[in-house]
Design goal:
The chain is an alpha+beta fold. It has 13 helices and 20 strands.
């Protein structure tokens, strides 16, 4: 459905662009797109902190040896950018965050009382996707992932954290008005015991982990399908998939059980018995890659974002130049209140101004003429609900702030 394609809408609404001079698959966020992205980032960081995640920042680059240790380099080196030699050492632009977070965990001794440790980050990642695989914002070479790694003391705690991660994902989807079974669905992605080149070798561990995830899905009482030979190299995963406007299915969010990293990184904690124990690891992405979820949301809303995400939340249209001074006061009041507002100072007719705003899919239009100035009010047109009549600036501001806060 071309009219919903995020590439077309993104260009029309001036959300993002690409430049061959910068490089293929490297999105450039224009001011309006950067605004939507910023709102998504603030939302997920605040929500994760509320749920006990520790948000951190780790470097975009690390020694190549780190990715050899994690197992990513031998498995995914064709998807990584070439090593960078600095002072006779090889470094990589990071394609994933997990080894960074494991090193952070190892920065001090840990006790069973500390666990689970939920390490989260909005991490900038770099992967060398083939040119033919690049697709708007859905598949790019530089992206920001809402990543997290949860270090647990035992399987029971890991399963509990998987359930909580899925609760968070379903909450996020409810905020976006995405429906389970219609807009997204669950896939249990399993490994292949015979393929030792692709998967970490631990047959008993794989069997147990896959059964744990299967039981976790059954406990949620939701439909899911199983996909063989589609797991991460280090363990099985629960993928939350969506379909883009072109009909292709992609993973939007994921929760993964890691069999490999606790051993590769010697992730330990001091148990209640005073002895060292191996930790258990859950990977999860609550909102996925910011670029990919942006693509899905652009297509979900056909560019008509809900108020809290709209790059411009209200636009003021003075009918004539005589109404401009009052319009500027309204603009200042709304801007001071934290509302993203624009003022159309052009000499176009009111009809042309209204058509332009509707094309831009702005949620609210404020029309100002003689009657509005005389009443000390504004005429409000809602993109979704039509004519709302005259409102005072105070009433309109309160209405918008309440709608923004509720994220309806």
């Amino acid at each position: 459905m071309e009219e919903r394609d995020h590439k077309k809408i993104g260009r029309e609404l001036e959300l993002f662009t690409f430049s061959d001079a910068i490089g293929k698959g490297l999105p450039i966020w224009l001011p309006k797109g950067a605004t939507v992205r910023r709102e998504l980032e603030r939302f997920i960081i605040d929500e994760e902190i509320r749920r006990g995640y520790l948000h951190v920042r780790t470097p975009d680059i690390a020694k190549l040896d780190l990715y050899k240790k994690s197992g990513h380099y031998p498995m995914y080196k064709d998807k990584m950018y070439a090593p960078i030699v600095i002072d006779d050492e090889e470094f990589m632009l990071r394609p994933m965050t997990c080894p960074h977070h494991f090193e952070l965990y190892l920065s001090k001794p840990r006790s069973y009382r500390d666990l689970p440790v939920r390490i989260a980050e909005l991490a900038q990642l770099y992967r060398y996707e083939q040119s033919g695989e690049l697709m708007g914002l859905l598949r790019v070479r530089a992206f920001c992932l809402s990543d997290a790694h949860i270090i647990c003391k035992d399987e029971e705690q890991a399963v509990d954290e998987i359930a909580k991660a899925l609760d968070l994902i379903e909450y996020v989807n409810s905020i976006f008005n995405l429906e389970l079974g219609k807009d997204y669905w669950y896939v249990l992605s399993l490994g292949d015991r015979s393929n030792t080149e692709k998967y970490y070798k631990d047959d008993a561990g794989w069997e147990k982990a896959e059964n744990l995830l299967r039981e976790a899905m059954k406990k949620r009482k939701v439909d899911f399908k199983e996909a063989s030979d589609d797991a991460a190299f280090y363990g099985p995963k629960i993928d939350i998939n969506m379909r883009n406007a072109n009909g292709k299915e992609d993973t939007a969010f994921t929760v993964q059980y890691d069999l490999s990293s606790p051993h590769r990184f010697d992730l330990k904690y001091m148990g209640e018995d005073g002895k060292e124990h191996s930790a258990f690891v859950v990977h999860r992405s609550s909102i996925g890659a910011i670029e990919r979820i942006m693509a899905f949301l652009i297509e979900k809303y056909s560019g008509a974002f809900p108020l809290w995400l709209s790059p411009v939340q209200a636009k003021i249209l003075p009918i004539a130049e005589a109404h401009l001074e009052y319009a500027k006061k309204i603009f200042s009041d709304l801007q001071t209140a934290g509302i993203r507002v624009e003022l159309d100072e052009s000499n176009e007719t009111l009809g042309k101004k209204i058509r332009n705003v509707k094309t831009e899919k702005v949620p609210y239009i404020l029309i100002i003429g003689d009657k509005e100035i005389e009443a000390n009010k504004v005429q409000v047109e809602s993109r979704d609900n039509g004519n709302l009549g005259q409102l005072s600036t105070g009433d309109f501001t309160r209405k918008l702030l309440e709608e923004i806060s509720s994220k309806k």
